[in-house]
Recover the amino acids of this structure.
């Protein structure tokens, strides 16, 4: 029993070394990912995923050293979490330094046009961008107004808005539909409000006829 406890909780390396190793690896990975851009974080293809998985296995030995104990793993995990908390808290109070470390977002599509220079800077192909857009529920690049690659590797996509003429045409059609539903009142059908007086009913019918004529005139203007 004593031997098992020794293997589980006895550190074969000094405690200070156990704390310094994760900190050095943490700083190295942050700098490395900053240099090689946002593409690796976005995992656009299987090669990016393989790189990240291999990277984690590569630095594993650098973090744990010759230590396989449970206490050593706990110390390493706590060290990484505390280091990340301190870094995030420090960058929260120094926003300019945070922008330098994380980088700036890259606008890949602006006003519906693909920006080739930004895509080349991020090493993105048109096929990869198409794949990202389709995963977000769009049919293709032609449906996107703006696409931004955030520093964390996420894509922010804004769809194209319909033209003003289309919106106006749709609004007019909706007005015509609503008016046609109520035409039964003017044709002697069942009134919408049973307690409405004859005068108010007649005035409403006159207003509806005028509204229909006005909507039809506007619709002809838009279509023409």
């Amino acid at each position: 029993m004593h031997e098992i406890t020794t293997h589980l909780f006895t550190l074969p390396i000094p405690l200070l070394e156990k704390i310094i190793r994760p900190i050095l690896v943490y700083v190295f990975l942050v700098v490395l990912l900053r240099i090689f851009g946002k593409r690796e974080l976005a995992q656009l293809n299987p090669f990016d995923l393989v790189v990240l998985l291999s990277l984690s296995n590569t630095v594993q030995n650098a973090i744990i050293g010759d230590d396989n104990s449970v206490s050593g793993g706990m110390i390493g995990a706590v060290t990484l979490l505390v280091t990340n908390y301190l870094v995030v808290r420090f960058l929260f109070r120094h926003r300019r330094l945070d922008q330098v470390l994380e980088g700036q977002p890259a606008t890949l599509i602006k006003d519906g046009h693909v920006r080739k220079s930004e895509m080349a800077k991020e090493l993105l192909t048109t096929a990869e961008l198409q794949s990202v857009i389709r995963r977000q529920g769009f049919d293709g690049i032609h449906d996107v107004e703006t696409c931004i690659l955030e520093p964390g590797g996420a894509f922010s996509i804004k769809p194209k808005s319909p033209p003003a003429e289309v919106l106006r045409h749709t609004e007019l059609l909706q007005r015509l539909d609503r008016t046609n539903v109520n035409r039964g009142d003017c044709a002697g059908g069942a009134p919408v409000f049973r307690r409405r007086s004859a005068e108010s009913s007649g005035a409403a019918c006159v207003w509806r006829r005028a509204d229909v004529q006005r909507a039809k005139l506007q619709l002809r203007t838009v279509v023409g």
Q: What stands out?
A: The chain has a mean pLDDT of 76. The beta strands are 106-110, 113-114, 144-149, 155-159. Residues 2-102 form one domain.
